[in-house]
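User: quick one, sequence for these tokens?
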């Protein structure tokens, strides 16, 4: 039987850091520091430093992080928020949760991120913010996006759920807009052992607002300044994330090495691969190829699966085509729709070896030759 190449390998990662993780979990349990508390605070300080942000506020998941960040920068019911449809559904959901309306614009075909040229035609008097999504770990073209936002008085909240330690012109994701949201879903580059997320910002008022909102609008144990909610991070997740953050630089470097190996093999074979914007360095949450027009993606996936190679599609149905958002009557987005039909995600995780990358590339190239014949 051929050896399997999984899509991600969380078991291999746990095996490599088991003593550290087990000790961290035992400490939280011994202290009964289950909700927020010192382990979450320690992680917040460390993650803010890792991003180069002034503040990090740990929350319950990445979707809540985006909603809380948008709310904190002033987005309210009735507003329009410009974002992309080529993203995980949660991006749109977080906007809708505030009673605001997502206005979807197209992406750039080569980088799969928000096309800055699409923003201005979508601005109306109701627009209050832009949510650029650093999809697959590749930062958006933030200089032009921020320039447009400043000119129109719009706030910018990065959806950095896939982009821990991604770099844009010497600054990291999470510091490029007015605020940013991160997800620590287990499969993300920095993954908890359950749900978790965070907001980063340089603005102390935004951080204070999120800190209050995530914990019932509390000023003190029994005093509530505003009606908030419960979006707190667990102590166990804080402790686990703090341990894993210590490895994130080397894991990210390993992802970048694997991505460079994929790039070299696949581009030499004439395949189109999603690349970072000018000045951007991806965190390579996913490694995505754009299959040639007309290729049957399902057949390619099945042929690779037969050889033990797992693949994914991120994302087959863009947000503006989701049944849940049909009432928006969103106009067509040609680049998004083409990309959604043709994108294919290959195995990508820090433990991926050069030999595995070679096997995936050889198999994909052979399958596509057969498909084209
Ligand atoms: C994972 C993800 C989210 C949501 O994060 P959760 O922690 O699962 O709530 C939001 N946006 C993008 C782009 C994501 O990949």
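Assistant:
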């Amino acid at each position: 039987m051929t050896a399997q190449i999984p899509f991600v390998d969380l078991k291999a990662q746990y095996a490599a850091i088991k003593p550290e993780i087990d000790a961290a979990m035992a400490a939280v349990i011994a202290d009964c520091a289950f909700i927020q508390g010192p382990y979450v605070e320690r992680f917040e300080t460390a993650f803010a430093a890792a991003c180069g942000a002034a503040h990090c506020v740990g929350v319950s998941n990445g979707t809540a992080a985006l909603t809380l960040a948008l709310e904190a920068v002033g987005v309210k019911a009735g507003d329009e928020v410009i974002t992309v449809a080529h993203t995980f559904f949660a991006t749109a959901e977080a906007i809708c949760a505030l009673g605001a309306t997502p206005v979807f614009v197209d992406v750039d075909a080569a980088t799969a991120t928000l096309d800055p040229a699409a923003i201005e035609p979508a601005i109306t008097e109701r627009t209050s913010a832009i949510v650029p999504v650093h999809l697959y770990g590749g930062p958006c073209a933030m200089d032009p996006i921020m320039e447009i936002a400043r000119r129109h008085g719009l706030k910018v909240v990065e959806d950095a759920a896939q982009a821990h330690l991604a770099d844009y012109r010497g600054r990291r994701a999470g510091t490029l807009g007015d605020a940013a949201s991160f997800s620590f879903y287990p499969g993300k580059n920095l993954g908890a052992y359950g749900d978790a997320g965070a907001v980063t910002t340089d603005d102390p008022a935004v951080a204070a607002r999120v800190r209050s909102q995530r914990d019932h609008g509390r000023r003190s144990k029994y005093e509530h300044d505003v009606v908030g909610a419960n979006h707190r991070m667990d102590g166990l997740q804080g402790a686990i994330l703090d341990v894993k953050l210590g490895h994130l630089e080397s894991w990210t470097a390993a992802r970048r090495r694997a991505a460079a190996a994929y790039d070299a093999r696949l581009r030499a074979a004439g395949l189109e691969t999603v690349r970072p914007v000018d000045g951007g360095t991806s965190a390579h949450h996913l490694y995505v190829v754009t299959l040639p027009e007309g290729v049957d993606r399902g057949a390619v996936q099945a042929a690779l699966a037969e050889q033990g190679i797992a693949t994914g599609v991120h994302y087959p149905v863009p947000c503006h085509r989701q049944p849940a958002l049909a009432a928006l009557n969103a106009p067509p987005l040609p680049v998004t729709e083409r990309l959604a039909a043709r994108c294919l995600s290959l195995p990508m995780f820090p433990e991926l070896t050069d030999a595995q990358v070679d096997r995936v590339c050889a198999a994909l190239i052979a399958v596509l030759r057969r498909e084209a014949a």
